[in-house]
Design brief:
The complex is a heterotetramer of chains A (311), B (196), C (101) and D (445). With 196 residues, chain B is mostly helical. Chain B is built from 8 helices and no strands. Chain C is 83% helix and 0% strand. The termini of chain C are far apart. The chains are: A mainly alpha (311), B mainly alpha (196), C mainly alpha (101), D alpha+beta (445). The interface between A and D is large, with 69 and 87 residues. Chain C: Its EC number is 7.1.1.-.
Chain lengths: 311, 196, 101, 445
């Protein structure tokens, strides 16, 4: 069912992801402006704010810190968007992905883990206490979300009896996985936020630690790190579509339009839902993740396994 | 041809990064050099047709090394290598031993008449692996499972100093852990102060 | 791409790891040596599977085993270091040896 | 270069502003925050994120140093201006985006924006510049534990501002080795190495001493805490003694009560509005530090509406919605409950009065007391009867005693902070929200 896209898709992918990231960031800016200025403050005019910030950072100077390890830090920063794009390579547009390896689901997870390690590097590089605290926070966060996240992904793969993303989509021709694996879907959405260290999981870049892992990065470094974060959000949210929302399946519209619509809906839900929650601190969230989410996802996987065996 | 290029492009950095692990004076660099080396190993494994295991190696090693970095920084005598450090002992003996082992292994590798390739890989090696782990190699799988479980228990016992009695009171009746205010490991509330 | 080349690379990784494990004083660094050695084992097992017996799954199972051992070794290693650190500020192998006395 | 100029021009129209708030300038800060909000300019959380610095209030000699430290750490191109009073906020903010005709060296004082273009004075703060990692090559990796090594870039009091925004210029290549190993006795690159000490978890990890504040976002203006961190656990915290207060006006939040005590005619509505706004300001800080920017922004907008004199019916409904929303959040309760528990008995011991005493509990309880009090005050906001001169209950506690209410809050801080993680420590400070304007100022009325 899933074909590999033509070569030009490889070139197009990063640009498409960046464009999507810019739109999502713009939506977030509008909602932020609405909270700050109220309806009378014309929040829609804030939409291009992330782009202007990006251009400002592009023109700004990077900076150095005393006795830092700038190159290690930069490797970390660069790895964030690179990992996002590599993970995005297995995202099917309609029914076509840039590449659809046999172990696409595991590949996606591995790339996310790479971004996880990268943020620590970005926090370590500048040799500054607050920035390192930010880096450590993301590691702690990973310990909390990674396990339920893996189980959620595994559950979807289990339901399709395949690790190939294309086959996971194909298995949802009739019924979306989100319908009969609601717990896995919900956990995946949570961990999509956590993975992009955004929203209620933005503690690694928390304002309370002066920006955490990003506290010391300026100019292009900062732009790459923050843009990489939006890319990660787009990619992880986008991955919930083939995993749980039936990918390109849907009536009337072409497959790519359905993918776009569903991705936009998930992203809109996440960006709007962020307003409802304060930042989750891991020393509190970890207990919840391990005592509630892990058993929940395991149960979900068990249910799915039983269904799969009996059909 | 392409295979050869890919092999050298992965094996070369793997060995080079492995050497750098013990040459860097900075914990972070050493850890991430090790990660780079093991990622290359993962790439080679994928190249050998074991997609699943290769990607799993990438995934697991990334997570492991990221955690390792933290422990490094926590526990090393000279955590960041701000000063040039040399924490070696019996360097010469080790060089002789490992050099000798390498010569032996290399000789074995080169001199052994390796058998011809027998059979073809299964259409889906991942599935074959799964079926053998759940079939003929069930015992291995069970042993691994038990070992992992024992590890979880043992490491927690070793690493933590406080048990549930410390957290929930002597009769375990407390509804909330006494250290809740400090997250998972708040000795301050328990012992009422800093440090022993 | 031949079996010998893969095995030589694996042997190189193994021996570099061995050197590290033998020389490093810090327990954590020692574990890094062990990880490298296991990396070599993984590579060798995968190569033998591919070039010698791709029909059987034993090579793959060996890789799974090595990956698990790495995880276990890491976890136990850090737990031991933490425990040692708690009892006495010791994170070096020599100091740990003194603790026995 | 042409493209870069275009980028700079676009970026300059949308600066991220770092606020350097000085004690005694609360009213100015509110005006600046409102001005920034109107323009939609983001408030930066760290110098690296900023492209402009706004000094809020009149800088005394003691403040000069850290303000300059912040300025040095902002990457160029950057602009700067100072706001002395609420009246000239707009003009000062305008100067941030107006291209300077010529680079003005140094701080031109009030109103003058200092545009430090890439060709500007290259020697500023760059003497300790490390040339990337080139000069460290011989040592394999000097990155390091200096992260634990006593250097926090935001609070760069000791002036080792090795941050230089201009590494595009090789001005310092020749003496790029300034920071190399000054002796190996535990000082690296001019930074002391962390030493080990006992800690909360019995692990004797490295301990790092660093000052928190005064340049942090959502932080009480003028407060500096000297903390010892192990990992991100605060092992010890002390309030750095404050410089003597500048003579001058009354502390903004306490003004109505103090003026009434002096016999001036102050309507009760004014006092109620001031108290309501003070609580909203504190709550906004706590919410922002807890990572909930949405209601924090709403609280700030409400605060300005309350102070702006709009009739209560225009904003009380929205205040009610905000309070309900915060009260309903079980997540917020789960995250802040148990932090900085200060039971009434303990509070009395420190002499704490006001909301912190009434809360008789943790950070979450204090937030609820603020919010409820704000709602109560909203009902009196349009009361024109005069404030009774013996009514001395200011927003942070009882005025007129020998010590200001915030003095007691500051006394309580160190004990509450010990053993808290960094994020929890921020929440605890925000939940007490001491107002340094009143400390040492003339509060006896």
């Amino acid at each position: 069912m899933a074909d590999t896209a033509p070569l030009w898709a490889v070139v197009l992918l990063p640009f498409a992801l960046v464009a999507a990231a810019a739109v999502v960031a713009g939506l977030d800016a509008v909602l932020t402006a609405a909270a700050e200025r109220g309806r009378g403050g014309r929040p829609l005019r804030a939409a291009p704010a992330p782009l202007r910030t990006g251009l400002r950072l592009l023109g700004g100077q990077p900076r150095r810190t005393t006795a830092g390890d700038p190159w290690l830090g930069r490797i970390g920063i660069a790895l964030v968007p690179v990992a996002a794009v590599l993970a995005g390579a297995v995202l099917p547009w309609g029914f076509r992905a840039v590449t659809d390896p046999v172990v696409g689901v595991v590949w996606f997870n591995a790339m996310e883990a790479l971004a996880w390690a990268a943020v620590w590097l970005a926090g370590w590089g500048p040799n500054s206490a607050l920035s390192l605290i930010g880096g450590y926070r993301f590691l702690a966060q990973g310990l909390a979300y990674e396990l339920p996240h893996m189980f959620a992904i595994t559950t979807a793969a289990l339901g399709a009896e395949s690790l190939r993303v294309g086959e996971v989509v194909a298995a949802q021709r009739g019924l979306w996985f989100a319908v009969w694996m609601p717990a896995a879907f919900a956990v995946f959405l949570l961990s999509a936020l956590a993975m992009a260290f955004w929203g209620p999981f933005d503690h690694p870049l928390g304002r309370d630690a002066a920006g955490g892992a990003a506290a010391e990065h300026a100019g292009v470094d900062r732009l790459v790190l923050l843009a990489g974060r939006w890319l990660l959000l787009v990619v992880t949210a986008g991955f919930s579509v083939p995993l749980f929302l039936g990918g390109g399946h849907g009536p009337w519209l072409p497959a790519w339009a359905w993918t776009l619509l569903k991705t936009a809906a998930v992203l809109g839900l996440l960006v709007a839902g962020r307003r409802l929650l304060p930042t989750l601190r891991m020393e509190r969230y970890l207990e919840f993740a391990w005592t509630v989410l892990v058993p929940l996802t395991l149960l979900q996987a068990l249910v799915v396994a039983v269904v799969v065996l009996n059909r | 041809m392409l295979d050869d290029v890919v092999f050298w492009a992965l094996a070369g950095p793997a060995v080079a990064a492995a050497v750098m692990v013990f040459r860097f004076a900075s914990m972070a660099r050493a850890t991430y050099a090790l990660l780079a080396s093991l990622l290359c190993v993962g790439g080679l494994v994928v190249r050998l047709g074991l997609d699943y295991l290769g990607v799993v190696v990438v995934l697991m090693m990334t997570i492991e090394m990221a955690l390792m970095g933290v422990f490094m920084v926590m526990f090393m005598m000279n955590p960041a290598g701000l000063m040039p450090m040399s924490m070696l002992h019996n360097r010469r003996g080790a060089a002789v031993i490992s050099g000798g082992v390498f010569v032996l292994l290399a000789a074995g590798v080169l001199l052994t008449p390796w058998p011809r390739r027998r059979g073809e890989p299964a259409a889906d090696p991942t599935k074959a692996l799964g079926e053998s782990l759940m079939g003929p190699h069930m015992l291995t799988m069970m042993t691994l499972g038990l070992a992992l479980f024992a590890t979880i228990v043992a490491t927690v016992v070793l690493a933590t100093r406080r048990g549930r009695y410390d957290r929930f009171g002597d009769d375990l009746r407390a509804r909330r852990a006494g250290d809740r205010g400090d997250g998972g490991d708040g000795g301050a509330r328990v012992r009422g102060g800093a440090g022993p | 791409m031949t079996l010998e080349l893969f095995l030589l690379a694996a042997a190189a990784l193994f021996c570099i790891g061995l050197f590290g494990a033998l020389t490093q004083q810090s327990i954590v660094m020692l574990m890094m040596g062990l990880e490298l050695m296991l990396g070599g084992v993984i590579l060798a097992a995968a190569a033998v599977w591919h070039f010698v017996a791709p029909a059987a799954t034993d090579g793959q199972v060996l890789v799974v085993l090595a990956v698990t051992v790495m995880a276990v070794e890491m976890a136990v290693g850090f737990a031991v270091v933490t425990a040692l650190f708690r009892t006495r500020e010791a994170d070096m192998t020599d100091e740990a040896a003194e603790l026995k006395e | 270069m042409g493209l870069r100029d275009v980028l700079l021009r676009i970026g300059a129209g949308h600066p991220a502003v770092l606020l350097a708030c000085l004690p005694g300038a609360t009213e100015t800060r509110l005006a600046v925050e409102a001005g920034l909000r109107r323009r939609g300019w983001p408030v930066a959380a760290s110098p690296a994120a900023a492209s402009a610095l706004v000094v809020v209030g009149a800088a005394g000699a003691a403040d000069e140093e850290w303000v300059e430290g912040l300025w040095r750490q902002i990457p160029s191109p950057k602009a700067r201006s100072a706001v002395a009073g609420a009246y000239d906020v707009e003009a000062a903010l305008d100067t941030l985006v107006r291209p300077a005709a010529a680079p003005v060296p140094g701080d031109g004082g009030e109103h003058s924006a200092d545009h430090d273009g890439p060709g500007g004075h290259a020697d500023q703060g760059g003497h300790r510049d490390h040339d990337g990692h080139d000069d460290h090559d011989g040592h394999g990796g000097d990155d390091g534990h200096g992260g634990h090594g006593g250097h926090d870039d935001h609070d760069d009091h000791d002036g080792h501002g090795g941050h230089d925004g201009r590494d595009g210029h090789d001005d310092h290549g020749g003496h790029g080795d300034h920071g190399e190993h000054h002796g190996h006795g535990g000082v690296v690159a001019g930074l002391p190495m962390a030493g080990r000490a006992d800690d909360r978890d019995g692990l004797r990890l490295d301990r790092l001493h660093l000052p928190l504040g005064p340049g942090l976002a959502d932080w009480p203006a003028g407060l500096v805490l000297d903390v010892a961190l192990q990992g991100d656990v605060v092992q010890h915290a002390g309030v750095r003694p404050l410089p003597p207060p500048a003579p001058g006006g009354l502390p903004y939040w306490d003004e109505p009560w103090l003026r009434a005590a002096r016999g001036a005619h102050v309507p009760r509505g004014t006092a109620a509005r001031r108290r309501c706004a003070a609580h909203l300001d504190s709550a906004a800080r706590l919410l922002a530090v807890s990572g909930w920017p949405d209601p924090a922004a709403r609280a700030r907008r409400l605060r300005d509406a309350v102070l702006g004199g709009a009739p209560a019916r225009e904003w009380s409904a929205e205040l009610g919605r905000l309070v309900r929303r915060v009260r309903r959040s079980r997540v917020l309760r789960g995250l802040t409950a148990g932090l900085g528990a200060l039971p009434a008995a303990g509070a009395r011991r420190f002499g704490v009065t006001g909301p912190a005493l009434a809360a008789d509990g943790d950070a979450y309880d204090r937030l609820l007391v603020w919010l409820d009090d704000a709602v109560r005050c909203a009902a009196e906001a349009d009361d024109d009867r005069p404030l009774r001169p013996y009514d001395r209950d200011g927003p942070r506690g009882r005025l007129g005693g020998p010590r200001a209410p915030s003095d007691a809050l500051l006394d309580a801080l160190p004990e509450l902070l010990r053993g808290a993680e960094f994020a929890s420590a921020r929440v605890i400070v925000a939940s007490l929200d001491p107002d340094l304007d009143e400390v040492g100022a003339v509060v006896r009325g």
